[in-house]
Design brief:
alpha/beta, 318 residues, 2 domains, binds (2R,3S,4s,5R,6S)-2,3,4,5,6-pentahydroxycyclohexanone, seven-stranded mixed beta sheet, Rossmann fold, single chain, Dihydrodipicolinate Reductase, domain 2
């Protein structure tokens, strides 16, 4: 059997998932794409049906399961509808725009396990090796994590708090996944006047301290770097260069220009794992769940609220 998948939203992320489903993912067929912009939907459809509205796509009989890549504010209603129809859904982050909406999805999904959230870094080979090394005790007890998250240039649709809810949220999720921590306190500094760099120092329930830098206009390239310092050693990502140039007596390495290139393998592996799990009637435990989506949104929105006062206590959502 192949899984008929519909993609809602044909922007950058929806376009990527649509291409993966039609060209690279085994066991799946892209059967439909929806977008209010017909041209965009057409370009991402690869011969599948086209809908203007996500709601119509969800109800289409050929759609067994969904990937949701529409604007954040639409997620709640679409995921709740998919749940009512019993259709599995892989939702791009955030799970929903507010904590209340995330909680409602989490509660509706308990027992059904139909909802997954696309925190794709969990499938990055480098993060997976890190997690494995930690599990084998390679560096002893982890004490400190340093995360740097730099974009070449902030997307045009970025507004103030999105630096936390849209970018820092990845560090929040990956640290929970790597270390099993929950966050209890944050100290925040906004660096420079443009509001495009934020430093966060987070305390956790396991005593591990996590320092996160997010810089939205780093200009030299897209660069994500994580280092974990343990009692007996450290693990750090090697430079994720995609091209090495030797020229005029010097060597240089090129950075990816954006996250689509840097995490290309993660998106492919995530979508493949999701399709495989849905075909076997189960949820893939490696993919973020509705609960993870609730936790990530809750921490991100709490941190964003604390920005003007420089930090404060964080509530663990459940
Ligand atoms: C973007 O929305 C993403 O999800 C990327 O993974 C992240 O690195 C980037 O900072 C966000 O703007």
């Amino acid at each position: 059997m192949t899984l008929g998948v519909g993609v809602i939203g044909a922007g950058v992320m929806g376009g990527l998932h649509a291409r993966l489903l039609s060209e690279e993912i085994a066991g799946a067929r892209l059967v439909a794409v929806s977008d209010p912009d017909e041209g965009r939907a057409q370009a991402a459809s690869y011969g599948g049906k086209i809908f203007q509205k996500g709601m119509a796509l969800i109800h289409c009989d050929a759609v067994d399961a969904l990937i949701l890549a529409s604007p954040d504010a639409t997620h709640h209603e679409l995921v709740m509808t998919a749940l009512r129809l019993g259709k599995p859904v892989l939702c791009e982050k955030p799970l929903a725009a507010t904590v209340m909406q995330c909680r409602e999805i989490y509660e509706a999904d308990s027992g059904q396990d139909l909802v997954s959230v696309g925190f794709m870094r969990r499938f990055d080979p480098c993060y997976r090796e890190m997690k494995e090394a930690l599990c084998h005790g390679a560096i002893g007890t982890p004490m400190l994590v340093r995360c740097a998250h730099r974009n070449r240039v902030a997307p045009s649709w970025f507004d103030g708090s999105m630096i936390i809810s849209n970018a820092m949220v990845h560090e929040i999720d990956i640290c929970r996944w790597l270390l099993g921590v929950e966050f209890t306190y944050v100290r925040l500094s906004s660096v420079g006047e443009a509001g495009d760099m934020i430093l966060a120092e987070l305390q956790t329930n396991l005593g591990i301290v996590i320092s996160i830098e997010v810089f939205m206009n780093a200009s030299y390239g897209y660069h994500v770097h994580t280092e974990i310092v343990g009692r007996d050693g450290t693990i750090a990502m090697a430079e994720p260069a995609v091209l090495r140039l030797r020229r005029e007596g010097a060597a240089s390495a090129a950075y990816s220009s954006d996250w689509i290139r840097r995490f290309a393998e993660s998106y492919r592996a995530q979508d493949q794992a999701w399709v495989r799990a849905v075909l076997h009637n189960r949820r893939c435990s490696e993919i973020a769940s509705a609960r993870d989506g609730l936790f990530a949104t809750s921490y991100a929105l709490q941190i964003a609220d604390l920005l003007t006062v420089g930090g404060g206590k964080l509530e663990i959502p459940i």
